[in-house]
């Protein structure tokens, strides 16, 4: 018998796709379990599950944040998520171009390279 | 005879209001003139003036970026601008709450304090 | 009739003192309520309430983090909390001196100034 | 005849193990020699050699700092050093989990991945 | 018939060499074209093309900035550019050593490793 | 009888002026003494005292670094120091303008404001 899906797991699945959720389960171990639970319950179950702004806007917040924070691994995931959430390629291009002004050109250059990899993997470039 | 308004000055006026533009002019001096021109021509005339995403989305990009970059002066301006661009108080609240997960709770706490000041100055809190 | 104290409120009271909790309640409003709940339930109720390391070690983690993140408001609170958690003045001095090597001298200089204010307010300097 | 070991070299050897010291010597060249001396004499000979807090606490300061500063190479070394200094796997897990709240989830996610690699290399995961 | 070289392309070619410009053209695509134009026109055509300080000093500004911002890809390019602009290996060594004090030892350690790769590729180490 | 001036104190005096050194002495206390010694001996006595690049170039490194690191207190000191080291107002303006491209416009805007205060205090604006 399956345990019912948590809110966080549902949001994460809708955002990143079922394969992402499967990969997470396979990398779960005694060391990272508490972080995976935190991510699922706090990040996705508590914050992403809220109303107030739609998921596309949440993706925009994350992309801008991750460019500024210099976190390429998470940025790739959230560009993927943004495309799943209805962002177009042109919208992602515009957001990243705007980060050149505020987070600086080196941040934007790295972000474009990461976005190109995500777009190529999806056949969008 | 007045010189015609530049694209950047127009966008800046629409985003931040005519008083903001007046204050900028008054603080202009020999030292900061090149930066004011850069801001008007590159930031507002070249990037903010582009299509592709609407101004509300550009405000969202900036708020998330400025929280992550720890730049309270600019964050206050762009929360103000976001309200001018059609963001609601609830939307700003949701964005800032989301930064607690990604940029961390100290970043979000500082951002809420700054936002509260902007909202109070506009009679929205 | 009082509602029973939550785990997070209890940890926060033990860490920062009852006056801190009172000040928080007074600044609570419709805009920041969701962040205060997040802080109380996630930060203090979920993470600080865990075992595994004692609270003094959690204070050390926070002080080092807040120096690196450049968040003076929170750093002042957590230096206060560290003293409540059993850190000595000498231990705080040593930690902050070590941040000069890793986070850089400007970060450490700002941190010492903040710590001196906290120590003076407590009559420890 | 050998030159006597400096204080910094001794502390570095005790913290990171003799193999680490050997690797350092092999990578020493005309360009990086001044940095290696700075590291040995200032970081390890002057700061790590101080009393006031024990080495385990110094490792905690460093892990929290390096997560916040986004420096994966050094973080891996200092997780290794923390285990040599008497930190348990559970303590490292708790510290890193706490960074999710303060430095943000992307910082903690990257840090867990780095820690897992260190733990696997030591047969601890 | 060729279009005449823009100011930005000329500065970029003089700074990074003609091969760098060729590589840029080959990686240009519909997604990154706007960023490449921004870089060429704003960064190189508008800022690097200015007088006031010589190019060597501009390289120094960039190296220090990119160490602090933790952007290794761009740092490698600008160490290369600095050598083209007349910086000596010893000058780069001194600048990077100084970043150990201000940006912290982990930043300087990463920067030295990147600089060593650039120097080796040019046969200077 | 006076103790002879250390190398670090001499460099610091030459860079920041004798009044700066006097102010430092007056703020020295049991808590910050170890940091003041670290600053004098490591930062000024060991690094700034080196040859290889002249002091003006060291000031340039620091200004770019402090803009990127978001450390206004130290930035003000080092803009002052740069003027003492022979940087002209125009050179400082150019450097700060360049940081708009790399560290981003918000960083440059804050830096210009700080520089204007320093220049006004010296009667240069």
Describe this structure in words.
Six copies of one chain form a homohexamer. Chain A has 125 residues and is mainly α. Helix content of chain A is 76%, strand content 0%. Chain A is built from seven helices and no strands. Chain A has helices at residues 7-16, 18-27, 33-48, 55-69, 72-84, 89-102, 105-121. In chain A, helix 5 (72-84) packs across helix 7 (105-121). Chain A is globular, with a radius of gyration of 15 Å. The mean pLDDT of chain A is 96. Chains in contact: A-B, A-C, A-D, A-E, A-F, B-C, B-D, B-E, B-F, C-D, C-E, C-F, D-E, D-F, E-F. Chains A and D meet through helix 3 of A and helix 6 and helix 7 of D.
Distance between the termini of chain A: 43 Å
The proportion of strand residues of chain A reads: under 5%
Point out poorly predicted stretches of chain A: none
Let me know the largest β-sheet of chain A: none
Q: Give the quaternary arrangement of the chains.
A: homohexamer
Give the largest interface: A-B, 31 and 31 residues
Spell the H/E element sequence of chain A. HHHHHHH
Q: In percent, how helical is the residue content of chain A?
A: over 70%
Q: Roughly how many Å is the radius of gyration of chain A? A: 15 Å
Number of strands of chain A: 0
| Contiguous helical run count of chain A | 7
Principal-axis shape of chain A:
globular
Q: Which structural category do the helix and sheet elements of chain A fall into?
A: mainly alpha
In round numbers, the mean pLDDT of chain A is: 96
């Amino acid at each position: 018998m399956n345990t019912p899906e948590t809110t966080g797991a549902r949001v994460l699945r809708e955002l990143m796709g079922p394969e992402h959720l499967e990969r997470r389960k396979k990398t779960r171990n005694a060391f990272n379990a508490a972080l995976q639970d935190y991510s699922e319950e706090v990040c996705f179950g508590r914050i992403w599950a809220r109303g107030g702004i739609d998921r596309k806007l949440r993706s925009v917040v994350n992309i801008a944040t991750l460019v500024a924070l210099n976190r390429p691994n998470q940025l790739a995931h959230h560009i993927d998520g943004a495309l799943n959430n209805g962002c177009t390629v042109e919208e992602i291009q515009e957001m990243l171009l705007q980060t050149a002004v505020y987070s600086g050109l080196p941040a934007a250059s790295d972000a474009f390279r990461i976005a190109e990899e995500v777009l190529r993997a999806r056949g969008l470039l």
